Amino acid sequence: MALSNNEKQIRHKRLEALKKYGNEVLIHMIFQNDGIKRPFEKTNKELKAEIETIVNLPAGWTDEDYDLAFKKIRNIDIAALGNPNLMDNDISDARSIFDPNFNQSEIKKAQYKAAEVVRNIKSTLKLSELKVTDQIAAIAEVMRFLGVELINEKFIPETFANATALSLIDQNYEKPSWTWEVLAQNLYNQNSKEEAELIVKKLTNPDIEKKWSFV
Questions:
Q1: How far, rounded to the nearest angstrom, does the alpha carbon of residue 137 sit from its chain's CA centroid?
Q2: Domain boundaries of the chain, sorted by first residue
Q3: Contact by Cβ (8 Å): 19, 48
Q4: CA distance linking residue 205 with residue 194, whole number of Å
Q5: Beta carbons of 79 and 148 less than 8 angstroms apart
Q6: Gap between the Cα atoms of 21 and 198, Å rounded
Q7: 114 neighbors 89 (Cβ within 8 angstroms)
Q8: Please, which residues have CB within 8 angstroms of residue 139's CB and are 6 or more apart in sequence?
Q9: What sign for the dihedral angle of Cα 166, 167, 169, 172?
Q10: How far is CA 171 from the centre of its chain?
Q11: Which of 110, 102, 89, 101 lies closest to 189, judged by CA?
Q12: pLDDT tens for the 215 residues of the chain, in order
């Protein structure tokens, strides 16, 4: 069915609003890329091309196409505001300044090598051509493998990364008592108060024992 002139104008205004939002986010991303250490792994030119690809909706685009494009741009903006040092923090948190063997240069070396590992993993995942959900399944399996390796260590540092790995392995393993406190704190930090309360409600629901197990 042909669109009326009014409908065409509405669609044009919505598309212009989407492009304006995309441009605002792009400016923000470029500012971040130029001013902060390692926030993105793309050049400004690549960031611009990514935004343009998202906002250039296909002819005959639907509300679903529009909403998905808006969501993608919003998620890019959220990523731009995120902390780019989470991995570095986990690496440094695993080492105590009160340790007589504390070595700042060793931490920097570990952070550099870890970043190299991450780049290689991302490249391997991209080349695999697996769906994102299948890539996540593969990473989760690696995390389970590392969790079992970690549980055999003499000393297990209290970090979010370690708590995450430990949460993925079988409940019969003996895990540090701080595991749940760290996970709970992160769930609270990464979610709204309402969502955190919902998580607590789900965990204390007697029916949870009847649900399927993920481990």
A1: 15
A2: 5-81, 86-210
A3: no
A4: 16
A5: no
A6: 32
A7: no
A8: 121, 125
A9: positive
A10: 25
A11: 89
A12: 677 888 889 999 999 999 999 999 888 888 776 665 544 567 788 888 999 999 999 988 999 999 999 999 999 888 777 777 888 888 988 887 666 777 888 889 999 999 999 989 999 999 999 999 999 999 999 999 999 999 999 889 999 999 999 999 999 999 999 999 998 888 888 888 888 888 888 877 777 766 555 54
Q: How many residues does the chain have?
A: 215
DSSP for the chain, please give it: -PPPHHHHHHHHHHHHHHHHHHHHHHHHHHHHHHHSSSS-SS-HHHHHHHHHHHHSPPTT--HHHHHHHHHHHHHHHHHHHS-TTHHHHHHHHTS-TTSTT--HHHHHHHHHHHHHHHHHHHHHHHHHT--HHHHHHHHHHHHHHHHHHHHTSSS----HHHHHHHHTS-TTS---THHHHHHHHHHHHHS-HHHHHHHHHHHT-GGGGGSPP--
Q: Is 120 exposed, middle or buried (0-12, 13-18, 19+ CB in 10 A)?
A: exposed
Tokens 């204390």 -> residue: 204
What is the rounded distance in angstroms from the CA atom of residue 26 to the CA atom of residue 18? 12
Query: Is residue 128 a contact partner of residue 135, using CB atoms and an 8 Å limit?
Result: yes
Backbone angles phi, psi at 43, to 5 degrees: -75, 165
Token digits for 19?
């492009």
